[in-house]
Backbone:
């Protein structure tokens, strides 16, 4: 595990220790838990379902730190569930004028909002 992901894991543990009553927004949902990382076969299967390669940083996140769980709002959506949550095509069209063409919703912000 890289130093970045080890630090992130330590930060999640520290947040959990400081909030045993799960009072921070979203904590009662994600409970400061991380889904197990995906192995290479699971990442390849996900990319096949999406018909797109994951960006390198996202691939590192889901294969080294965790495939979802603790994060902003109600947490990071399990990356293997994004297709179910976003509809038949989890890759959504980008707004006009942005430098990218598709996006993958990752964080659940509450009230049905995904970021």
Residues:
């Amino acid at each position: 595990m890289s130093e970045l992901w080890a630090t992130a894991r330590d930060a999640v543990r520290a947040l959990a220790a400081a909030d045993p009553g799960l009072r921070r927004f979203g904590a009662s949902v994600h409970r400061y838990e991380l889904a197990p990382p995906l192995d290479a076969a699971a990442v390849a299967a996900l990319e096949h379902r999406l018909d797109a390669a994951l960006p390198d940083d996202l691939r590192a996140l889901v294969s080294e730190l965790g495939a979802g769980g603790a994060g902003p709002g109600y947490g990071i959506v399990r990356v293997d569930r994004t297709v179910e949550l976003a509809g038949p095509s989890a890759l959504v069209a980008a707004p006009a004028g942005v430098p990218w063409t598709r996006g993958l919703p990752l964080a659940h912000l509450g009230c049905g909002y995904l970021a």
User: Anything to note?
Assistant: The mean pLDDT is 85. The chain has five helices and five strands.
